[in-house]
């Protein structure tokens, strides 16, 4: 079977540099798997897929329940409580999926914009809907406020039946969301204590929205399983998580400050958004960490390509290369060849996109921008599960190697404290 592969040929990293860092990486990997590193009580994601148990059946029966009742559903959540589901649904259902497939999927609770919420209410008011409210802490203000508004809408629309159309994913015991859920009898799913927000896409946080959106959850779990199995290998030369973590740390130590995750498929843009939270919150602490950024090519080659090519040499690029595309188009032949493009008529767009990638990679390499390539055979649920797992494992190894705790996010509280005090919270 084809597999996810890592190509470091354009990374400007020598064999010797890899050799030198090997022992540190292996030690970090070992700490992680033996659960001996800092915050080891937050490493439940490593084997969650083997412990999922009844949760899977319950997700499937919730999906069955809403199947004929919903034209649309809204996922309320922020950060780790929505990015993974959004990434998965967009990557699998593809561009314009809400116009093409039912149920349509909307997101709320990820901002404080009244205008966004008002428009969303207008969009869904004539549709049959249900809600999935996701918050591990159960107290996040963006999600809680949006839930206030949409709960009211649900109650006006469905009265008592609204209780059956609201699904909650939260902590087992704690938080306001848990309380309100118990009070109203909403169907509730649990985010395990030992899995933090940005590692939670593999729990009901990601799985419930994926199931409602008709993604093949079993295949996603198979991908996770395959990742868990393959990436526990402690042989550096056989484990691409170890190699990717090594490459990032080598480049960082050499003075690179920004890692850009690049993709060439618009439907994969949100994978990069999920990845940014994963690496940003995990590694950005104690004055350390690579700044995780993302660019979408070829679109952004026409805006940011200049900087990557000739700007400050603080960047390296990691390309998510989807090798086979399911849908494609062929360039039509034109009798008059008014744009001079007949020389590529008959060629699939995927071929041209691939050549754009190769040309860009060469150009950036000539501009001394190190390039890492992660090859994904195709974008389906299986490889999506595996790539999520690949990034989570790589991130934890990378964080331990850099001597930080990859499972906390103390800095995020700072803005919240100020905001609450400005709002007059007592
Ligand atoms: O799931 P919640 O508790 O609502 O948290 C949602 C998000 O917000 C927080 O501020 C954290 O920085 C994130 O790590 C988390 O994913």
From TrEMBL:
The active site is at 281 (proton donor), 416. One of its GO terms (molecular function) is glucose-6-phosphate isomerase activity. GO terms for biological process: gluconeogenesis; glucose 6-phosphate metabolic process; glycolytic process. It catalyses: alpha-D-glucose 6-phosphate = beta-D-fructose 6-phosphate. Pfam families: PGI. It is found in: Cytoplasm. The keyword Isomerase applies. One of its GO terms (cellular component) is cytosol. Its EC number is 5.3.1.9. Its main location: cytoplasm. Keywords: Cytoplasm, Gluconeogenesis, Glycolysis, Isomerase. Pathway: Carbohydrate biosynthesis; gluconeogenesis; Carbohydrate degradation; glycolysis; D-glyceraldehyde 3-phosphate and glycerone phosphate from D-glucose: step 2/4. It is an enzyme of class 5 (isomerase). Catalyzes the reversible isomerization of glucose-6-phosphate to fructose-6-phosphate. HAMAP family: G6P_isomerase. Belongs to the GPI family. This is Glucose-6-phosphate isomerase. It comes from Sedimentibacter hydroxybenzoicus DSM 7310. The lineage of its organism: Bacteria, Bacillati, Bacillota, Tissierellia, Sedimentibacter.
């Amino acid at each position: 079977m084809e597999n996810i592969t890592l190509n470091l040929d354009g990374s400007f990293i020598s064999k010797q540099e890899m050799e030198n860092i090997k022992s540190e990486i292996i030690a970090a990997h070992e700490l992680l798997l033996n659960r001996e590193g800092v915050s080891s009580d937050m490493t439940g994601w490593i084997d969650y897929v083997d412990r999922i148990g009844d949760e899977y059946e319950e997700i499937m029966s919730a999906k069955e329940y809403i199947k004929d009742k919903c034209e649309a559903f809204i996922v309320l959540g922020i950060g780790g409580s929505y990015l993974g589901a959004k990434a998965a649904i967009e990557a699998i259902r593809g561009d314009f999926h809400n116009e093409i497939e039912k149920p349509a999927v909307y997101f709320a609770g990820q901002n404080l914009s009244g205008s966004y919420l008002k428009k969303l209410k207008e969009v869904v008011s004539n549709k049959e809907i249900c809600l999935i409210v996701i918050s591990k802490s159960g107290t996040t203000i963006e999600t809680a406020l949006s839930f206030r508004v949409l709960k009211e809408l649900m109650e006006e629309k469905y009265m008592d039946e609204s209780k059956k159309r609201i699904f909650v994913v939260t902590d087992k015991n704690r938080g306001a969301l848990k309380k309100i859920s118990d009070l109203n009898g909403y169907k509730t799913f649990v985010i395990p204590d030992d899995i933090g927000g940005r590692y939670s896409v593999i729990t009901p946080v990601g799985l419930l929205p994926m199931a409602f959106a008709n993604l093949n959850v079993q295949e996603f779990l198979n991908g996770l399983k395959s990742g868990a199995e393959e990436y526990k290998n402690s042989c550096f030369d056989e484990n691409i998580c170890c190699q990717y973590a090594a490459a990032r740390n080598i480049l960082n130590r050499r003075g690179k400050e920004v890692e850009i995750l690049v993709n060439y498929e618009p439907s994969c843009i949100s994978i990069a958004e999920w990845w940014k939270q994963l690496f940003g919150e995990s590694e950005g602490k104690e004055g350390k960490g690579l700044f995780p950024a993302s660019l979408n090519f070829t679109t952004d080659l026409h805006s940011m390509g200049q900087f990557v090519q000739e700007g400050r040499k603080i960047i390296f690029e990691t390309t998510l290369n989807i090798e086979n595309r399911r849908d494609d188009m062929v360039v039509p032949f034109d009798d008059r060849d008014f744009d001079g493009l007949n020389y590529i008529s008959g060629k699939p767009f995927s071929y041209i996109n691939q050549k754009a990638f190769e040309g860009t990679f060469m150009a950036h390499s000539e501009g001394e921008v190190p390039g890492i390539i992660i090859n994904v055979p195709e974008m389906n649920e299986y490889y999506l599960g595996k790539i999520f797992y690949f990034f989570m494992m790589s991130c934890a190894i990378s964080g331990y190697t850099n001597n930080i705790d990859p499972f906390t996010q103390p800095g995020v509280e700072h803005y919240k404290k100020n905001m609450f005090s400005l709002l007059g919270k007592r």
